[in-house]
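Bug: token stream looks shifted between consecutive jobs. Job 1:
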Amino acid sequence: MTTATLDPRRWWALGAMSLSLIVIGLDLTVLNVALPTLATELEASTSQLQWFANAYTLVIASLLLPAGLLGDRFGPKRLMLGALVVFGLASAACAFASSPGQLIAGRALLGVGSAFLIPLSMSLLNRLFAPEERSRAMTIWVMANSLGIPLGPVLGGWLLDHYRWGSIFLINLPLVAVGLVAVALLIPSIRGHRSGRIDGPGILLSGGGLVGLSFGFIEAGERGWGSVPAVGGVVAGVVFLLAFWAWERRTADPLIDLGLFGSAGFTWGTMLATMASFALVGLIFVLPQLFQAVQGADAFQTGLRLLPIIGGMLVGAKAAERLVIAAGAVGFGLMLIGLAIGAFTSVVDGYGFTAIWVGVVGLSIGFTLPPMNGLALAALSIERSGSGSALIQAMRQVGGTIGVAILGTVLNSAYRDRLDVTGLPPAVAHAARDSASGAVAIGSPALVRSAREAFVHGMGITLWVCSGIALAGLVLALAFLPRRSGVAAPEPEKVATIGA
């Protein structure tokens, strides 16, 4: 079917999905600026503060694959509507929580909604758009996924300055309401396929594996690589995933189609998208600390200073639409350059220098994420769009969690090795070694100077690690990406028309 025969409202449908995705990005970062307030208002312990974030992450990891399967079986529209309702109710529950336990439960419920919205919205790109349009559609989808990340600190910081802390969750409700109406009116009712059994053992094994790995690496980032929960979580996760792989090879109705990994487009598109996400995770991890502890920005200003990432992504994604396969190599080359420049950042460099290399890295992510996601998506059949999209997102989710743990270890180790706490009382030294922000808050001029220099040193090493990932991505893109997309046009009856 040609583009001309497709209903033009499919782009409005994509806009509806984009609204839904923005709230997910918001909730990834808006909580960060509220943690000091929550510690006071809810009398939350350090462990509870960590679980405000971890509950959300672990629920997403456990439900991505079954969410994709259910979308394929029952149709994505009704499940997206249900996920938006759950997300809205969870947002209200978080906003009016009166105890840490209630907020943790609300964050877990937010994870349920997100776990369905992410893969199902991605799967609709295969169903709604002709092959020649999917690159542009994927660009919009990735931008919507990413836009909420810098907006979270901006909106969160402003709301905390003017309203009660619960307002950071109430901002989801108008977007959810608009998303509900838009999805109901613009997304077609696409029938699922009810053949075969639901792979219950596969769901349990994959969920256990993804949660185990995610939990283990989260604990490694917070407690160190030698802690029992970290080692136990990673080992359990690996065992579950090996059992899952063995089960999927022998069951008649597998949760995921292992044959997808026989496609170079799917395998390398997914892997390179995950590696590009690693660079994005690295930036989001170190930049807020640089802006606040070294450059003196508040939460609101930090959000604004992250905007060059989005600007670079927009420009890069637009330019990459015509390059498709070649965009991967170009993107990783730019990523290597931007991260290497960033590794030379010093304490005396102002925001102008930072904005330049951050913009270059943002540009590189625009060149890599949409085309690589699109390349992987093109390998999926219409019937397996949901489960295949969920697999892509699950790999990125776990990859991001592993990335934070690794980069956090590198940054903290280098920071603590360089920090001078000579002569400080043990309690003060411990607070200073815990984070650069903690050291700056103590206020001693000598300690502040040492903390800023130590953090920039640690950030430089962290960015060199990210540069190594970018170099590996460049080599893999040149060596293994197919020279052409090889995407065949889908059969006419398999391209959904709005209103069908």
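Job 2, same session, no restart:
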Amino acid sequence: MNGRVSERAYAESGVDTAQSDAAVSALVSVLGTIDPGRPSRAVMGSGHYANVLRLDDTTGLALSTDGVGTKVIVAEQLGRFDTIGIDCIAMNVNDLICVGAEPIALVDYIAVERADPEMLGQVAEGLKAGAEQAGIEIPGGELAQLPDVIRGHPSPTGFDLVGTCVGLVRLDAIVTGARIEPGDAIVGIASSGLHSNGYTLARRALPDLGEALGTGTVGDALIEPTRIYVREVVDLLRSDVDVRGLAHITGDGLLNLGRLDAPVGYRIADPLPPQPVFELIAARSGTPPEEMYEVFNMGCGLCCIVPPGNAEEAAAALGGRVIGEATDREGVVEVVGLEGRRGEGFRRASTASR
């Protein structure tokens, strides 16, 4: 196969998720011991999509921060910078809504190799488009020129883009997943493609950005902006539907369902179809399904868990469909002949484990 890599393709391409998990644990183990000299305002523990700080007896301030990873390299190689800001907004607001919060503002941090007004103007256009899709403001940010740190592909177009998002949520309306029960329905909402995860592997598998793919090119597929789910999810949260869990499907794929606070498992019996770019990555890299479903969203960008009686209404409101249900196999995610747990990845499911 063209560009074939080894069985653990993501690690071979430079991203070792097991090592990353250990590094995060090292960070959290220290940061969790911070003594602010007053009672903590944090309502949730570490590990969810966002955290919530108690402002008063009724209101919480939700916080999330994220970047767009090596998708910036695709933008540099294509010389197209007008959509990458959408990804920055999306990766943050899509996390924030998973705790039931309504995003209200984001501040950005842009590190550049060279401060090019034309390039930064294009980045700003994407930030504006994403902010308007999400219904948020960008009241400020930071630009850092770091030629000794940032190197472009090609130089001197290198940059990195990160955001920090805030939102509001009633303390009695925080969505954690704790109320999910076996038998609850999983509604899946389609992604727009890779979103902003797995690009180290994707770029290695598909180095020719001008290669034809469908009605466009590989470059078009890789630069496609991350879908923003804020408006439909916020509308659903304001409805009478009992939203018990929300999962943003990013790195770790559908194993992200395991981040929800519930002693249940999840069975994806009818997954959403992956876009052609996923099939091409798998074919060119030799990456097996168990790793594809761990690294990528595989066509599903967000999951919403509701009682069975609310499934049809939730699917209609979100523009998605029921793809599975919660099970009594605590911590286990099952999909297309695979099963896995967070931190362990997917493996081929055995009939004896059913």
